[in-house]
Amino acid sequence: MPLIVFARLALSLVSLAILGAAGYLLWSWHDGYWVWDAYGVGHQEHEPWRLWTALALLAWSMLGRLIVTPLLAKPDTDPTQPERGDHQMISSPTGSRLYVEMHGPADAPPVILTHGWGLDSTIWYYLRRRLSQQYRVIVWDLPGLGRSRAANGRAIDLSHFAQDLKAVLALTEGKPAVLVGHSIGGMTVQTLVRDHPQLLDGAVAGLVLVNTTYTNPLRTMVLSGAAQALRWPLLEPMFRLAIWLQPLAWLSAWQSYLSGSAHLANRIGFASQVTRSQLEHNTLLATRNPPAALARGNLAMFRWDADGALQAITVPTLILAGDSDLVTKCEASETLARATPGGRLEVISDANHMGFLERSQVYNDEIESFCQLNLVTRPGNRPREPMATET
């Protein structure tokens, strides 16, 4: 999302400046300076402080995250991790190849989870583990991210994502599913409703929109006026440069990750409950995804609007918002709830944009209760009893 992009860009420049300073100090130490003795013989002298300062700055540039992360986040009691499971690759009508995993009993009611931008399906670690005890949980990577492959640059936009989600929905084999979407995932769900409303007549049992918006996210983030003013002179050119200069952008992203600057930027998406593994997981995904794909997705969001999709929703809808969300402010979720017939808003306290990680127990309870209410009541669509108690 643009707010995090702002922070990552600024802190990445600081990180590169530190690395540049280390390089200059190493060069100046090696070059030294000349002094002449009483006999006119020159001696090259080296200033040790330049060497030691350069080595310290280099160490910070390569290992800073090991110090920064513990300072920014709490110790873990239940660490998340970007783990993968058994998967299949499916073809979408858009031409993209989609990475899909299925978890839980094969005959259980389906729940499809769509992640936010810059992430991949591993970010659903807690919710996937919880729901797969009773439901058939389907997670997938958006094209261009994770292990999914976009057909081309034009396939990275919301309308294409909606077609991709429709292809994933076909894997339920006619069983009504609950669709859960975080951030751009929620925008993708809304676009699916807008472009393919017939799916609400049986294929979709309910919607869960998590920390998302109904329009260009620049309009619903903190400091939205400044963000919109910077769109054309700064953001649009910056993203296009990232597409053209992807190798350099990727090197810069990894250097920022190693120094801990990226962790500091991504910390903006969390409130006070974030743990070290959650911050590391989020930052790692945002770093290893291709900068060109990330840029195209952000540009696509700038041009997106729900366009009446909300009024067309005829299935139960749960809208979850964080009261401290800076990326998509709580007011965006309130607007979603007002515009969605039968929509129910739940505001989670002390939760930012990544609230479903830092307050996972609360978010998981809400989503599981919604699935229980809207999937159990359907004939032939009952979930099994839980296989184990979540720790």
Could you characterize the architecture of this molecule?
With 391 residues, the chain is of the alpha/beta class. It has one domain: Rossmann fold. Helices cover 46% and strands 14% of the residues. The protein contains 14 helices and ten strands. An eight-stranded mixed sheet has the order 3-4-6-5-7-8-9-10, with helices on both faces. α1 packs antiparallel against α2, α4 packs parallel to α14 and α5 crosses α6. It is elongated and about 100 Å long. The two termini are 32 Å apart. The C terminus is likely disordered.
Task: List the secondary-structure elements in sequence, H or E.
Answer: HEEHHEEEHEHEHEHHHHHEHEHH
Can you identify the CATH superfamily? Alpha/Beta hydrolase fold, catalytic domain
The CATH architecture is: 3-Layer(aba) Sandwich
Highest-level CATH class: Alpha Beta
Most strands sheet? 8 strands, mixed
Radius of gyration: 24 Å
Number of DSSP helices? Answer: 14
Helix content: 40-55%
Strand percentage, roughly?
Answer: 5-15%
What is the count of β-strands? 10
CATH topology category name = Rossmann fold
Low-confidence stretches are 382-391
Globular, elongated, flat, extended or rod-shaped: what is the shape?
elongated
Structural key phrases:
391 residues, alpha/beta, Rossmann fold, 8-stranded mixed sheet, two-stranded antiparallel sheet, 14 helices, 10 strands, elongated, AB_hydrolase_1, hydrolase activity
Task: Chart the SSEs and their pairings.
Layout: H1 2-31, E1 33-36, E2 42-45, H2 48-63, H3 65-72, E3 87-91, E4 97-103, E5 110-114, H4 125-131, E6 136-140, H5 158-169, E7 177-182, H6 184-195, E8 204-210, H7 224-244, H8 246-259, H9 261-266, H10 276-288, H11 291-302, E9 317-322, H12 330-339, E10 343-348, H13 355-358, H14 360-375
Parallel strand pairs: 5-6, 5-7, 7-8, 8-9, 9-10
Antiparallel strand pairs: 1-2, 3-4, 4-6
Helix pairs in contact: 1-2, 1-8, 2-8, 4-14, 5-6, 7-11, 8-10
